[in-house]
Amino acid sequence: MSGEASRRDVLGGLLVAFSLAPSTALAQTGGGEGSGGPPTVAPDLPGTLAKFPDLDAWIRIAPDGRVTVFTGKVELGTGVKTAMAQLAADELDVAIDRIDLVTADTGLTPNEGVTAGSQTLEQSGTAIANAAANVRLLLAETAATQWGVAATTLFTHDGAVLDGQGRRATYAELAASTSLAVRARADVPRKRREARRLIGRPVPRVDLPAKLTGLPSYVHDMRLPGMVHARVLRGPSSGTQLTPDLAALRQQSGVDRVVQVGRFAAIVGPREWPLEQALRVANRGRWVRDPSVPALLP
């Protein structure tokens, strides 16, 4: 082959390059640490694609050309959400800002178990990249059928398939007549390294703006109808028990009620911070050693 990139090379080397998954990727897919997860149904496919081989479980293309990518993993601050968007955008030949990534939605995404053990990209990233390569090939084949040419004479760019002779079809147009409810093929190669634009290059993290501006994105930001918070009244160390003035605590701003069951006591209210303030007041009170708990030192 010459050093000049041909249309076949740009399309991803559909006939001349192959993607081989490491053996550990097949051995460790599924539920994550300590869990086997869903069964492997397509052992010839890499990553979690072996457990969820249908392409529409991973990728959908909307009529406006936006691409939705699904992963069962979550963003824990390690940047995997950005990395998976990079993988999908590069393999599909679309701008990264046209990728909408849906993470760990039990009603929408594959069940990939826990997010742990540094396996997110090995499992889910590999699945997304190979699913994207499959989708790119399917769309090129649809265009080839419509134009009466071989798919290897076509190339992709910016969310469209082109023939270099003036004909161009967008992914949105091609997706209208291409079903993604099909099983991924194991012999579809990834893009050639020299044709990649995003993988291995820094891009702005998609998860940081929400974190830096304090948008609700954590479990403790969840608000449910009628939800209240609580703080348990504890002694300063193991084997101790507070003896607070419960009547005074009931008068504290933000404390709706005091729950007392035997020696257990807790304060309840609609907001956390007033409870924290009331707890600090309680902690300044007296405490006694619980006689039922043996002392650590004689």
What does this entry look like structurally?
- By secondary structure, the protein is an alpha+beta fold.
- It has 2 domains: 7-211, Aldehyde oxidase/xanthine dehydrogenase, molybdopterin binding domain (Aldehyde Oxidoreductase, domain 4, 2-Layer Sandwich), CATH 3.30.365; 223-289, Alpha-Beta Plaits, CATH 3.30.70.
- 26% of the residues lie in helices and 14% in strands.
- A 3-stranded mixed β-sheet has the order 1-2-3.
- Helix 3 packs parallel to helix 4.
- The longest helix is centred in the middle third of the chain and has 28 residues, at 120-147.
- Mean pLDDT is 85; it is low at 1-34.
Concise account of the structure shown:
This protein is α+β, with helices and mostly antiparallel strands.
Largest sheet report: 3 strands, mixed
Strand percentage lies at 5-15%
How do the strands line up in the largest sheet?
1-2-3
As for the number of domains, it is: 2
Q: What is the name of the CATH topology of the largest domain?
A: Aldehyde Oxidoreductase, domain 4
Q: Give Rg in angstroms.
A: 28 Å
Query: Helicity, in percent?
Result: 25-40%
CATH class call of the largest domain: Alpha Beta
End-to-end separation in angstroms reads: 82 Å
Low-confidence stretches: 1-34
Oligomer: single chain
Question: Mean of the pLDDT scores?
Answer: 85
